Amino acid sequence: MKLVVVSAGLSVPSSTRLLGDRLAAAVGRQAPAELQVVELRDLAVEIAHNFTSGFPGRSLSAALDAVAGADGLIVVTPVFSASYSGLFKSFFDVLDKDALAGKPVLIAATGGTARHSLVLEHALRPLFAYLRAVVVPTGVYAASEDWGAEGLDDRIERAAGELAALMTGLSASRPVKDEFTVVPFADQLAALAPPAGGHLR
Length: 201
Description:
By secondary structure, this protein is an alpha/beta fold. It contains seven helices and seven strands; from the N terminus they run E-H-E-H-H-E-E-H-E-H-E-E-H-H. The protein has a single domain, classed as Rossmann fold (3-Layer(aba) Sandwich), CATH 3.40.50.360. Helices cover 42% and strands 18% of the residues. The longest helix is centred in the last third of the chain and has 17 residues, at 152-168.
């Protein structure tokens, strides 16, 4: 399985990237997967050029392919003006419109104050619902005061567990009762054969 983290953090070091790393580690403990991190900061110029030329550069193309080919995504953005960042939105604007259909996605965000925690519900969740992704129930928001405080670790583990379950297909592993029996074609032909010494009419 392949897990991709899309981080829209701008600074180095970045609390947005840190949150993405912690979420990825939590998922990895429950569903071991190959991990790839896409840092949008490094793709900003190519994303802008994609809008004007209509074609992605080499690095952006590789990032888009990674996201499209992932079994699960963790997307993390800093909050700007009470919403996701422009760079974050621009990346998903240049992604193929069908690339996330049916794909499990864990949404997360960072901000300076807990007042922006609803960004998960009024901005991120509708965006990925529009892209037809399967968004896990628990989103993770980390304000400045959340780092090292009680509660963040629990939210990370709960959200990671939900993503891991979707990635490994646990939600689809319940036995399904067959409504009919499939008869092999050879058996159907044998049933048509005439009895010994008889003839087909």
